[in-house]
């Protein structure tokens, strides 16, 4: 049973080996691993299997052998026929080959020609497709070389939208397509470079552009100005107020000259387009518009122009020194905004009205600040006037281009005030020179011709003087007509600034009167006051100054008439400003009068300082002191000069002098440095006071009533009478009574003088031979001193 299983196992192994389905290594390993001596048994089984297969092969070969032999035999028979057929086929093939060689050659030629023809047709078709592209690209190159960049950009658009799609598959087209962005960038750079050159050019030539524009504006305004001048001539023909006339011939000459200048300059005026080539801006704007980058161009242009505006608006540090500096400044600004206005109107969107208005407002604020600062340094009225004319032309020019200029005319009113200030300073110097050159004496005239010359300069009317025979004198000095002429010249100078300010005649009249008032109330008044206070001006000069101011005051009404004839505005108009000459010259007169009083008192002080009293003399000299007689003689001569003054002035001066003399003499008695005084000195002093009273009673200046002038010495007189008659009992008894004989004697004054006399009585033995009288008087003095002290102390306690 075991052997059968073993045999069955080996058969299975052999079957597996023959099947080639399982790995032989595993099959063989199973044979050797099962039992010992399995190898030998397996080999036996394998040999038996091989023998069986050999037997089967042999049987099969024996079964098919006869057929194989028959087939070989048939093949041998066919071999001969096959060889024959091979020879025939080879010969036939050779003949066919020989016959087809020429056909093959012709056929290849035909094929090659057909291919070439097809290729030529294709090339022609493709070239016909490419030629327009190449022609357009060549045209593009020509346009670039000719700097026709806008046309070049249009050509690029055609190439990209129309032509390139036809030939986009070709490499040359790709190269062209790749080159177009670079060409566009080149065009942008070139056009931007042209724009920069343009901006630099207009920056350099903006002053020429502005000068041309201002000339054009001035030329357009000429006709209306000429009409204004003619109108002024019409109401200025008969302008006579005491020979105050505006010369008609002079105006006609000026008008004719101005019209001739207009005719000469008419052909020379160029337009802005004649001076500036704006094509770079147009090209650049069109190029950036085509490129779709218009906003970048607009921003760049505006940014650069704003930078240039700041540079243009920056003035030179010394601009205020000459009118050329101002003119260059204005022409550059005008040139800048004329260009901007042109760009605004010929381009769409590059600059807008809002942008130009913003730029103008910024510039206007800067211009006003610059002019306000620099004009403040101008001290020459002629330069200020030229500046005003430039501002007017500047404003009119820009107003013609649509820019608002009201603030500039407001600025002109500020500058007008400054112009008036410079005029006032200039005329202050003129007045000072006139006063310095004046001799302060009446104007002498020896014949009718000289009389008429003075009358033509100054409106003086005096029938009494006209009746006098030659030679005679005007009461005023030479400075009066000169000052009157200079006031008129000032009015003319002030009028020049009011021209072209677009103001009515009423406003001009008001301005002229106000500026003239300033001249009178401030400049002339100040010059007069300074003149009056000068140390070298003496009493005679002061008297003449008072006379001069009187006549200048009377001439103010003629100045008002003079202004009325210039402006044609009646003085009866409600709002017409009046001239303040009346108060001006009154103030100067009062100052001169005060100075007369002061100088007169100073002169009296000089004489009083010459006094040399011997305060211890026992007996008077019997005559008045020499210094006092000299003083009285001086006063008499001075008061003779005062006869030309108004009565009240001379009377006030005389009263002031007497009062000052009385006060000075009283102070001399009560001087604290004077320790003692004798009765003889009092008597000598009394003689001097008597001379003063005699002088006062002689009426040195007419017009005093009664003994009014003598009352100036009443204090001294009562004090000296008290000491001369030694009437102390009456004084003490009546003190404080309205009817007291010594009402003007102050107890303090009497006590001071009495104590000085008491000290003298002690030291000087004047009454040595009358011892009893001496003792009695000394006792009396001591008693009176005690009573006076008691009286003074009572007054102090009461106070």
From TrEMBL:
<comment type="function">
    <text>Component of the exocyst complex involved in the docking of exocytic vesicles with fusion sites on the plasma membrane.</text>
</comment>
<keyword id="KW-0813">Transport</keyword>
<dbReference type="InterPro" id="IPR048359">
    <property type="entry name" value="EXOC6_Sec15_N"/>
</dbReference>
<dbReference type="InterPro" id="IPR046361">
    <property type="entry name" value="EXOC6/Sec15_C"/>
</dbReference>
<keyword id="KW-0268">Exocytosis</keyword>
<dbReference type="GO" id="GO:0000145">
    <property type="term" value="C:exocyst"/>
</dbReference>
<dbReference type="GO" id="GO:0006886">
    <property type="term" value="P:intracellular protein transport"/>
</dbReference>
<dbReference type="Pfam" id="PF04091">
    <property type="entry name" value="Sec15_C"/>
</dbReference>
<feature type="domain" description="Exocyst complex subunit EXOC6/Sec15 C-terminal">
    <location>
        <begin position="408"/>
        <end position="756"/>
    </location>
</feature>
<dbReference type="InterPro" id="IPR042045">
    <property type="entry name" value="EXOC6/Sec15_C_dom1"/>
</dbReference>
<comment type="similarity">
    <text>Belongs to the SEC15 family.</text>
</comment>
<dbReference type="GO" id="GO:0006893">
    <property type="term" value="P:Golgi to plasma membrane transport"/>
</dbReference>
<dbReference type="Pfam" id="PF20651">
    <property type="entry name" value="EXOC6_Sec15_N"/>
</dbReference>
<keyword id="KW-0653">Protein transport</keyword>
<dbReference type="InterPro" id="IPR042044">
    <property type="entry name" value="EXOC6PINT-1/Sec15/Tip20_C_dom2"/>
</dbReference>
<feature type="domain" description="Exocyst complex component EXOC6/Sec15 N-terminal">
    <location>
        <begin position="45"/>
        <end position="214"/>
    </location>
</feature>
<protein>
    <recommendedName>
        <fullName>Exocyst complex component</fullName>
    </recommendedName>
</protein>
<dbReference type="InterPro" id="IPR007225">
    <property type="entry name" value="EXOC6/Sec15"/>
</dbReference>
<dbReference type="GO" id="GO:0090522">
    <property type="term" value="P:vesicle tethering involved in exocytosis"/>
</dbReference>
<dbReference type="GO" id="GO:0005886">
    <property type="term" value="C:plasma membrane"/>
</dbReference>
